[in-house]
Amino acid sequence: MYLAAEPALFTGLVFLLGLAVGSFLNVVIHRLPRMMEAEWQAQCAELRGDAAVLPSCTLATPPSSCPACGHRITALENIPVLSWLWLRGRCSACGTRISARYPLVELLTAALSAAAAWKFGFGPLAFGAILFIWALVALAFIDLDTTLLPDDITLPLLWCGLLFNLFGVFTSLQSAVIGAMAGYLSLWSVYWLFKLATGKEGMGYGDFKLLAAIGAWLGWQMLPMAILLSSVVGAIVGIAMVIFIKHDRRVPIPFGPYLAGGGLVALFYGAPLMRAYLGAF
């Protein structure tokens, strides 16, 4: 196929697609937790015997608008990255500042997607890696905002990993199944050991499911690398937050972004890092 013979063109097209998907992921990151909260409230109302309140938004409706003045975002104002730069990071109607995180999510999604396209080339390996990346970006920022890792993303991510590896795309099916089980049970064990020792919960069940999904995609062999990287980075950032910005130790720090980062490093560099680590011994 033409795209398989032209890696630069394939990478460029994936970068543009990543910008568009990154724009959509901003919607997912913002709205999905609110949709979950509305669903919980509806379930509570149903248990009380009250009339259920339907969710006020979905991922598709209502159209995006400025949270300050309600100005509806036009198509020209919704071009990834370029519109933010053109508007100088402000609403065109009221001048309220628009967070720089929106274009950063778009650029991050595009850059990681393009890196996967370049590294793996046109084919199922790249397509799977790109889907994996999109899910991890959404989960990392949702957890950063809300300390939640929605089942609506983690569980489909796990099953998609097993589906891809049914055909041995990233690893064998046996390794993927063991990776899913080991990923979940490893953090589940740490959770209960910590709770029995301290009486506190050290992490949430969403972290178990996310690591299980990473294991389902990359196989059990990559789990030690993903856990080690995420734990080291998480510890460094957590200590820095306590020392330099006086972060309250009683306020939990989400672990999902570090797990996602560990999974991404394992996706791109897991095999050579494992060889280097084992070679050192």
Key phrases:
mainly alpha, single chain
Detailed description of the structure:
The protein is built from 10 helices and no strands. The protein is an all-alpha fold. Helix 2 crosses helix 5 (124-146). It starts with a helix and ends with a helix.
How are the secondary structure elements laid out?
Elements: H1 2-5, H2 7-48, H3 82-86, H4 101-120, H5 124-146, H6 151-165, H7 173-198, H8 205-218, H9 223-244, H10 256-279
Helix pairs in contact: 2-4, 2-5, 4-5, 5-6, 5-10, 6-7, 6-8, 7-8, 8-10, 9-10
Overview in brief:
It contains ten helices and no strands. The longest helix has 42 residues, at 7-48.
> Portion of residues in helices?
55-70%
- Elements, N to C (H/E): HHHHHHHHHH
**SS-based structural class?**
mainly alpha
Shape: globular
Instruction: State the major sheet.
Output: none
Termini gap: 44 Å
Number of strands: 0
Question: Radius of gyration, rounded?
Answer: 20 Å
Mean pLDDT: 87
